[in-house]
Amino acid sequence: MFEITPNLNPNDQTPLYIQLYQYLLKEIETGRIPQGTRLPSIRKLADHLGIGKNTVDAAYQQLIAEGFILSKPKSGLYVAEFDEQFFTPSQDSGSQFSCLEAVQPLESNYPFDFRHGHIDKDHFPVTIWRKLTNQVLYDQAIFSYGDRQGEPELRVELAKYLYQSRGVSCLPEQIIIGGGIQQLLSLLCFIIKLENPECDGKKSGQQQLNHYGNVAVENPGYDGAREVFRQHGFSIIPIELNTGGIDLKKLAKSNARIVYVTPSHQFPMGMIMPIANRMKLIQWADRVDGYIIEDDYDSEFRYKGKPIPTLQGIDSFGKVIYLGTFSKALLPSIRLAYMVLPEQLLKSFQTNFQSYEQPVSKILQKTVALFMQEGYWQKHLRRMRHIYQKKHETLHQSIRKFMGENVKIIGEESGLHLLIEVKNGDTEDTLIEKAKSSGVKIYPTAKYWMNQNQAKDPLLLVGFGGLSETEITEGIRRLSESWF
Ligand SMILES: Cc1ncc(COP(=O)(O)O)c(C=O)c1O
C-alpha cells in the first residue's frame, strides 16, 4: 500500500480534517492517487500521521459524501472511478512548468535502428548473470556502504584485465569506479580544478588563459565529453583531425595544457592514432606540464591490424588519465565505467573526496567482479569479438553490394560503428528522413563538430551492435532503395 504524507499544520487556522481532506482531494484530482486505489484504513492513516482517528474519519467522510471515494463492505475505502475531464488541471499537477516533457520510454520503434550505443541482444549470458547476482545477494557485505573508490575486488580484476588486454599499467589503488564516462569526467574536472585553482571560472582574465582553464578536444569529437568540460567552466579549444587522429601541430600551437582524445577509435571518425603520434602526444603533455585524458570507450573490438598500446601504457611521465567503460563489451544499462588516475591527481582525489560515497551499486560491482574472477568476462569478450567481427563484415559487404560507389565507408577498423559519406546530393536531414520512411533509423554526425556548419558532406553514423546480420543486410538494402 502507498503511503500518504501530507504536510499538516496543527497551528493553522484551518482544522486538521479539512487540511487532510484538501490534500487527498488534490492528490486524487491530479491522478497522483490513481482511480481505483485502495486507501489506508482510518486506524493506519491516523497512526501513520500521528493524528486522531476522528480527524481521518471526518476527512474520509467528506470525500465519500462528494463521491471521490467509495466504501466497499468488508474490503475498505477506494478512490472512485470518474471522468477525468471533470477536473481542470490543478496548479500542483506540474502544468506550471513549461519545460516538462511527457515521460516516454526510450525504446526505438524503428524495425532497423542503427544506433551506435546499441549492443548485441542475443548473447548476454543471462543465466550466469542471474546466478552471480543471486550469489552476491547472500553476501553480508551488501548490507553496508561500499568502498568510496569502488569495490576492491573489482579494481583488482580490472587492473589485471587492463594490463593484459590494453597494456595499461596501474595498481588497483589508482582505479576509480564510476557510473559512466561522463560522470567520471565530471569528477575529474572537479579534481583538476582543485589542483589548479586558477581554472576556477571565478578567477578571470588573461592570466587564466594559459593555464588549465582550457581543454583541447578533437573536432569532430564526442559531444558528451565536450559538454562536461563546458559545464565545468573550461574553455573548449577544438583541434582538427588528420589521418592520425588529433592534429598534433595544431595542438602544440594552441595554449591548452589538457587534451581529451579517443586514440584507439576516434569518435566519431574512427581513425586509430599511430604509435609515433602517441609518443609525440605524451612528449607534448610532458613539455607543457599538462594532462592527456584518454577515452578508450570501445577498444575491445578491433578488426584489422595489431593492437597499439594505450597512451597510459607508454606514458612514463604520469600525464595520462585513462578512462574505460563496460557499456560496449558488457551492457550500457549497467552504467559502470572506470578511471585510472596518475599519482598527483589520485592524491588530490583521496584528500578532497573523502566524504563522497561511491555512486555505483555495490551489488552490481560485486557481480561484475565475480564475473571477471570466474573467467566469464574473458569468455564473453572472445565470443562478442567473434560476433561483432561477423556483423562488421556483413555490414561492410551489404554497403558494398547495395550502395557500391555511391558511398564512402569511413573508420571501419574497430568499434561498433562506422561512418558512410553519401554522395547523392541530399543533405544529412533529407537522408535521415528518407531512411525513416523505409523503417530505418540512421544518425547524423553534424552535432559532433563544435560548429555544426563545419560538417562537410553528409556523413552518417551506422552502429551495428544491436542488429542481427539479417537485419543489417535488410536495413542497408532498404536504405539504398530509399536513397538512390
Ligand atoms: C567517445 C565515447 N566515450 C564514452 C561514451 C559513453 O560511455 P559510458 O556509457 O560509460 O557513459 C561514448 C558513448 O557512446 C562515447 O562515444
List the helices and strands and how they pair.
Layout: H1 16-29, H2 42-49, H3 53-65, E1 69-72, E2 76-79, E3 112-113, H4 126-137, H5 152-166, E4 175-178, H6 181-195, H7 206-209, E5 214-219, H8 223-231, E6 235-242, E7 245-246, H9 248-253, E8 258-261, H10 275-288, E9 291-295, H11 311-314, E10 320-325, E11 337-340, H12 343-352, H13 362-373, H14 376-403, E12 407-410, E13 417-422, H15 428-437, E14 440-441, E15 443-444, E16 459-463, H16 469-483
Parallel strand pairs: 3-14, 5-6, 5-8, 8-9, 9-10
Antiparallel strand pairs: 1-2, 4-11, 6-7, 10-11, 12-13, 13-16, 15-16
Helix pairs in contact: 1-3, 2-3, 4-13, 5-13, 6-8, 6-12, 14-16, 15-16
This protein binds pyridoxal-5'-phosphate (PLP).
Task: Write a compact overview of the structure shown.
This protein has 484 residues and is an alpha/beta fold. It contains 16 helices and 16 strands. The protein has helices spanning 16-29, 42-49, 53-65, 126-137, 152-166, 181-195, 206-209, 223-231, 248-253, 275-288, 311-314, 343-352, 362-373, 376-403, 428-437, 469-483, and strands spanning 69-72, 76-79, 112-113, 175-178, 214-219, 235-242, 245-246, 258-261, 291-295, 320-325, 337-340, 407-410, 417-422, 440-441, 443-444, 459-463.
Description of the molecule:
It is a single chain. The chain has 484 residues and is an alpha/beta fold. It has three domains: 16-92, Winged helix-like DNA-binding domain superfamily/Winged helix DNA-binding domain (Arc Repressor Mutant, subunit A), CATH 1.10.10; 112-121 and 381-483, Aspartate Aminotransferase, domain 1 (Alpha-Beta Complex), CATH 3.90.1150; 126-378, Type I PLP-dependent aspartate aminotransferase-like (Major domain) (Aspartate Aminotransferase, domain 2), CATH 3.40.640.10. 39% of the residues lie in helices and 14% in strands. It has 16 helices and 16 strands. It has helices at residues 16-29, 42-49, 53-65, 126-137, 152-166, 181-195, 206-209, 223-231, 248-253, 275-288, 311-314, 343-352, 362-373, 376-403, 428-437, 469-483; strands spanning 69-72, 76-79, 112-113, 175-178, 214-219, 235-242, 245-246, 258-261, 291-295, 320-325, 337-340, 407-410, 417-422, 440-441, 443-444, 459-463. The strands form four sheets. Strands 4-11-10-9-8-5-6-7 form an eight-stranded mixed sheet. A four-stranded antiparallel sheet has the order 12-13-16-15, with helices on one face. Strands 1-2 form a two-stranded antiparallel ribbon. Strand 9, helix 11 and strand 10 form a beta-alpha-beta unit. Helix 1 crosses helix 3 (53-65) and helix 6 (181-195) packs parallel to helix 8 (223-231). It starts with 15 loop residues before the first helix and ends with a helix. Bound molecules: pyridoxal-5'-phosphate. Residues 117, 180-182, 222, 262, 267, 295, 297, 325, 327, 332, 337 line the site of pyridoxal-5'-phosphate. Keywords: Aminotransferase, DNA-binding, Pyridoxal phosphate, Transcription, Transcription regulation, Transferase. InterPro entries: Aminotransferase_I/II_large, HTH_trans_reg/aminotransferase, PyrdxlP-dep_Trfase, PyrdxlP-dep_Trfase_major, Tscrpt_reg_HTH_GntR, WH-like_DNA-bd_sf, WH_DNA-bd_sf. In the C-terminal section; belongs to the class-I pyridoxal-phosphate-dependent aminotransferase family.
